[in-house]
Fold each of these.
Amino acid sequence: MKNTTPKPGLRWSTFSAPSRFYALAGRVVPWLWAVSVVLGLAGLYVGLLVAPTDATQHDSYRVIFIHVPAAILSMLLYLALAFWAAWGWIFNARMASMYARALAPTGAMFTFVALWTGALWGKPTWGTWWVWDARITSEFILLLLYVGYIALTEAIDDVRRSAHAGALLALVGVVNIPIIYFSVRWWNTLHQGSTIKMTGTSMHQTMQLAMWLMMFSFWAYSFAIAFTRSRAIVLEQESDTEWVKALGAAPSEGKA
Amino acid sequence: MIWTSFDDFLNMGGYGLYVWGSYGATLVVMLAEVMMTRRRLQTARQSAARENAA
């Protein structure tokens, strides 16, 4: 059965109405998955089969193709979470608060990946799995912020109060992001400085290519998973509205 | 292609544990997140359908 409602135009408000978001995201998500898988496979191919062995770190350096994109996404997703949480709070916009909640588990996942791959890279490079230096400690605090945000928003049943409390926590935690980013400059740390610089990077071209491919793959993944989770949250929070009840009547959209 | 054999590829110049431990764990947590999220959406859909039937 075809959708009989008129096609919504692409205005900024398109994504602010839960019913419109639900339908539109449903169409976009398969393409995002496709982009993520294609770029990811290309990144793995270049990173594991084409890029040469590093002169100083040998093949242990290949962890970088996951470690750096995951670490960058862990910070970007937190900024996006805080932005939508603040937007939802200030403008009392339900959809914005739902985006914020949808981003949290993915941000936590990438933070965990950054820490895990960092430990596995640190062992052969520094001789230790873990050290409480500024970079690693602040990234660990980021994981606690994500977990705290999830626990807090899940603990409060009232949707509005939950969004407000979550936004407050998210905004206080934003201070941690520049601390993570600049930690390697502000303090003497075991962790090395930025690998990607705008001018004159030290990396071989195929190594850079692999890293960017993985970065955009993770980026597309983040959009795909956050949109999918947003759709679930929309249905959960809007379950008593007419459009969700009408959705339940239409069997055509059974598969995702 | 920079490897001479499949064993050479798996060995990763002696760093196999660290490289595959990183890539493997990442793949596992990403796939787990995808499965959990899809299940969550499925459950939300089913309860919407139930609400409609009631």
Note: Chain B touches chain A through 35 residues (CB under 8 Å).
Amino acid sequence: MAGVHIERLHKEFHSTGSSAVHALDDLTLDIADGEFISLVGPSGCGKSTALRIIAGLETPTSGRILFDGRDITALEPRDRNIAMVFQSYALYPHMSVRQNLEYGLKKRGVPSAERARAVASIAAMLQIEPMLDRRPRQLSGGQRQRVALGRALIRDPEVFLLDEPLSNLDAKLRVHMRAELGALHQKLKTTMIYVTHDQLEAMTLSDRIVVMNHGVMQQVGTPEEIYSRPANRFVAEFIGTPSMNMIEGEISTEGDTAHFAAPGLHLKLPKAPAFRGRATLGIRPEDIALVEPEAPGAILAQVTVSELAGAERYHFVTMGASPVILRTPATTMLRPGESIALALNPQHLHLFAGVGEDAAAMR
Amino acid sequence: MASDEAPLTDAPKPRVRGEGTAAAAASRGGLLSALRDRHLGLVLLAPSALTFLMLLVFPLGYGIYTSFLQRHVLEPEGIWVGLDNYAWLLGNADFWRSLLISSFWAGATVGLQIILGTAVALLLHQPFKGRSVVRGLVLFPYMMPVVSVVLIWMLLYNALYGVVNWLLVQAGIIGTPIAWLSQPASAFWAVVFVGVWKYFPFVVVIVLARLQVISQDLYEAARIDGASAWARFVDITLPQLRDVLLVVALLRTIFMFNNFEIVFLLTGGGPLQATMTLPIMVYEQAFGVYELGRGSAIAVVMFVILIAVMSVYFTFLRKEND
């Protein structure tokens, strides 16, 4: 096991006839020994590039990586003592499961008796003993996933790298494998760096989450911090389903009181922020409550459409001139066109200075 | 068991086709229509079946039939001689010699085409400037007509003014020019070289296509697993190419074993029968000495040999798939 220090990592891709693409911009990150950290973000955000650089499959344009203080930036992947699970599993199709599992050990000159013992132990742990002599194409998606994990585990690496390992599984199996992966980390306590575009995977598995966009780290923190105190509008909208509601408007002050005004909406803010002028107000769908129209501070809104999502229901409403999503239990029925009154939980209002994706949170 | 239980209610009996008079009439109509459908099917099948029979089965059957005849210009109808032509073949040293030369010719050209084709495909799979142009140029020998290829190589091999001799003399490899196609010792390999040069691009195209679909993830996984570049080639590339190389080997073997024009145009089977492959022997028997029956017998033996090669291949393939 090892702690990982990533220092000012930068990666540019050049292709003929076009300008350089900045895949990764000045990434600095400390990952503690035994930590499970997720890199999350939309496609092209640089999360896979970062992982591939840590693996040694890509060379950084600048910056360095240290494992327990040892600079491994220039080392070949095989000399880094890492293991990686690929999105496609990358199992060798012409080899049996047993051969797949022991390949890494064989290439490192581990004697055959020792390899056999390691294969038996990993196969027992992952419950893949009956399929040791099968080829990957004879396995189901979940079984392949386990073999891929086994191939990574067998070498007892210092750092585990997982590149969207669950995204090829169907929804039910994904939930199951997610739980298994979590349990595996609890058991092994190995440093795991996990890349995903699925925020739910990141939230449920990670000790900490790194949110990335356009090659730049947007925020790093525990799942709770990322969810309840997003650093900017991008993080706020990316984490959470449905997304946080965003209303663009203006902050003004009247004496000691601050107000947020948007077309058709006027709100008194619970505490005066340091910022004045154009701003974005964010509120999560579960922080909006249905109230009686005569309740103090009630905001009138009109229902556009309601969607049932199992145990809960999402209502798309127009509040003032802004479209907003509201989350209620499935039993709350609202008709399209119905006029309702809403109250925003003042403790859970998020204010962002300015408008647009980069608008930073006001603390 | 649910299926053993009696139904709870008397469900209406489903109507069965053929029940009652009207149903019987309908059934008769159905039978006629079925017959009509069957005839229509036959009519629609006929053109392709006839084409198949005329273009494939008839010539093949006629060839086999001719191999049982003594047939030449003086006896155009042919006399039934049973297995005499085959008996003649088995006792003929020239036939055995030609069979050996044909096997060596097919083995050497196919083996070298695969080695050269795979090597070139691996090179062309690497990124470099002008790769597309080089990929196009490599196909040239395969696209050129055989006659042109033969003429070019006859010029290149020429003992008086050929470039091959000039280069070898300049390089100090040989002291005096060699008549490559006129000496039994060199003619076979000179012809093999042309056969390899002409057809190796076929292997390049197929292998290159396969190389391009091997997942990069496999190589990356192997790098992380600690495999060196050579280990990645042996453990990933070669096994991934294996199936396609087997198909290529089968196709090229059939093609080269039957190949007539390159050898015939370059050497005519000589010198001193050093390049007398079976197809040339068939030609010699059928159109040189006008023994059509014997020529056909050789062709039938070639056909049987190739069927045997294919059977071995498919048996092997089936075992692999199992």
Note: Residues 215 and 236 of chain B are 10 Å apart (CA to CA).
Amino acid sequence: MPTTAFLTDSTLCIGCKACEVACKEYNQVPADGYEFSGRSYDNTVHLGHSTWRHVAFVEMDTALGAGGNAGEQISWSFVSDVCKHCEHAGCLEACPTGSIVRTELATVYVQPDICNGCGYCVVGCPFGVIDRRPDDGRAFKCTFCYDRQRDGEQPACAKACPTQSILFGEIDELRARADERVAALHARGMRDAVLYDPRETSVGGIHAMFIVRGDPAAYNLPPQPEVPTIYLRDGWRSAAVAAIAAVAGTALAFVARRQLGEGDGSRSRARLTS
Amino acid sequence: MTATYYDVPLLKPPVWTWEVPLYFFVGGAAGGAAIIGSLADWTGTDGTLARDARWIAAAGGPLSAALLTADLGRPERFLNMLRVFKPQSAMSVGSWTLTAFSASSTAAALPPLSAVAGPVSAALGAGMLTYTGVLIGATAIPVWNENVSLLPVHFAASGMGSAAALLTLFGHDEPAVNDIALAAAAVETLIGAAIERRETPAMAPLREGPSGWIIRTGGVLSGPVPLLLRTASRRRSWRTAASVAALAGSLLTRLGWIAAGRASARKKP
């Protein structure tokens, strides 16, 4: 099976949120309330248990090729955020039930019939994507439309995107297209266009890449995401030292005190005064 | 000044409620008690100490399992924890450790089985003491992963201190129990000082806000207070006070670390 991926291009996104709607509709994800955030035109705010696509509205100084007809206006940059389907996925490594699996498409999928809602994946995700749905008790995130892909269809968000900002395809092909696109944008004067795909970190690259302008952190894409399994070695080493120290220390206390007590030949001496 | 997205936190806060920190406390004390019970038996110390310690472990093991189950979003699926064994998941290692510990500590409290089950429960108790530190340390939460090497030692000292405190409250005045309580309090004091000295941004929730207050109060109650009370006087009432302080401190420490994790995740990126 091919390794499939998303390439989400902020320079083509018009902020219509069709991807958010298509995802909710197709996957029958519950509504997440009517809350006015006051943050540009973004009332979705972040990904979560019931939000698997989120269009970020980033306001920046007017820049070439991204709106802004007059100097005093801001230019808008939109990008549709989604689960990154990491090469080394923190949620998948953390999952104690085996509910979260790597599919034959190399996507990261939560099996809802297995998940027992332990919540460990929530703190395992370096992107803050997966979350436990309070009224359901299980953890949810983007499925990469596993069922649609199995039927040869593209994911609902990519299908609904009217500007081809969300590209879906084979990962190596998309990486090549991303490089071409960034080079083309640079040639057109958009020197701040970058590909977000943290391959040099312990996450080892993502299967949902982004082309953004400026600092990816402005889109809530972390500069240095790390898969938490990198902390295990230090943790278990320390745990082994602590466990041995606790057992050896306790043994030492009993052995030493017994010898002191036996020296006196009296059991009552081996007690503190009361 | 790095760019942010309207200061929206990047990470999701832990979803765990009060059951998980309470489980860390109970599991740590039970693990420590299993070690004390088994070694007291092995060295031939007064038989009632071994018996009482084993009963604490036997009560704490299943109670820990119940607390962890209660915190699940789908408690009826607890057994799914035992579908697979994943060494790379501290939650998986911990679930197996807890299950085996519950069974062995219960068996160890029954005299015909204690000779075999006792040492097993002590070995697993050492795991119960420490694995929770790895559990929260190996996560994306900055204040937790920054302290991944400190946490297992911290939680081990806290658990041994609680076990010794409980036994003191049960009327055990064996000097070895006092030694264990003193050593645990000394380690907790050093760890408290180490936390205060490290001033990286990720450490802020351990010193600031409500989580900082819980951590500090817990640290003082489980470190310097029992250390001073147990060294200052040999009166039983002072040891009782030291034990109450150590238990309260251990519970607050666990609550504080979870609260700090929540605060750490909510900090703007």
Note: Chain A touches chain B through 84 residues (CB under 8 Å).
